[in-house]
Amino acid sequence: MKKKLLALLLGLTLCLSLAACGGSTDDTAADDTADTAGDDAAETVTLTVAASPTPHALILEQCVPILAEQGIDLVINEYSDYVVPNTAVEDGDEDANYFQHIPYLEEFNETRGTHLVDVASVHIEPMGVYAGKTASLEELADGAVIAIPNDATNEGRALLLLEAQGLITLDDSSNLTATPNNIVDNPKNLEFQELEAATIPSVLADVDLAVINSNYALGAGLNPTTDALAIESSDSPYVNVLVVKEGNEDNDAVQALVEALHSDAIRDFITEEFDGA
């Protein structure tokens, strides 16, 4: 707007100056300058995306130059929680978000009445079990304390991972929203601290084990492939997705981001930067 106003004032000054001199041939040139400034501004489209700092924002940063070549200014806004990125897209404060998996998205829509849809599956972050005061699963003592996420889908995901290690038995191993109330066999009398997913790395030293989402593990300097005592298998259903509000799926800038996220350049970056994590 400042550039357009400056061009307009410049043209007006020139016009008055020429009028005083009896000339008028450069009026069109001044108008052309203002129009060109306006056209240049109109050619750039801004796309705002809410993302977790690691790895989502790092991945999106690699898309910035790819989209810039197409006249799209990708603005990445980082969030440390799992709620605001969704409400921001629902309210129109963000164009899209990239931080969550499909089961979480579906549960969020159902419980909060939002209208969010995934437009691209990008990567899987395997959830892992990490050592705190206890160094291994074999050393886990009776009554040991395990920290797990307290949101519906990630809590169930954590319990299913612990069940896969033979530590507990659930009443339904297909229940992605299981809670400790669904445990029917707990031979070691394990206790569970249900905490916000983002805070779990900070309490690792205070519990025996912790089940941590890989984005928060990476942010805490943990490598899921080398530091986790146990990790989800590669057939995990928890693929991380790019999400928009329903009705915006075919937005040109959004589709350009989808193509960028699915490009060889981004695949290679994820593989090299996170070493399989």
Write up what this structure looks like.
- The protein has 277 residues and is of the alpha/beta class.
- Helix content is 42%, strand content 22%.
- The protein contains ten helices and twelve strands.
- It has helices at residues 2-21, 27-43, 53-68, 84-90, 102-112, 152-164, 214-219, 224-227, 252-261, 264-274; strands spanning 45-51, 72-78, 96-101, 116-124, 128-131, 145-149, 169-170, 183-185, 191-195, 209-212, 230-231, 239-245.
- The strands form three sheets. It has a five-stranded mixed beta sheet, sandwiched between helices.
- Helix 1 (2-21) runs antiparallel to helix 2, helix 3 crosses helix 9 and helix 3 packs antiparallel against helix 10 (264-274).
- The longest helix is centred in the N-terminal third of the chain and has 20 residues, at 2-21.
- The protein is elongated and about 65 Å long.
- Mean pLDDT is 87; it is low at 1-30.
Shape: elongated
* Beta-strand fraction estimate: 15-25%
Helix content: 40-55%
Biggest beta sheet summary: 5 strands, mixed
Radius of gyration: 26 Å
Structural class comes to alpha/beta
- What is the mean pLDDT? 87
Strand order of the largest sheet: 2-1-3-12-4
Let me know the number of strands.
12
Unreliable stretches, pLDDT < 50, 5 or more residues?
A: 1-30
End-to-end distance, in Å?
45 Å
State the helix count.
Answer: 10
Secondary-structure element series: HHEHEHEHEEEHEEEEHHEEHH
Summarize the structure.
By secondary structure, this protein is α/β, with parallel strands linked by helices. It has ten helices and twelve strands.
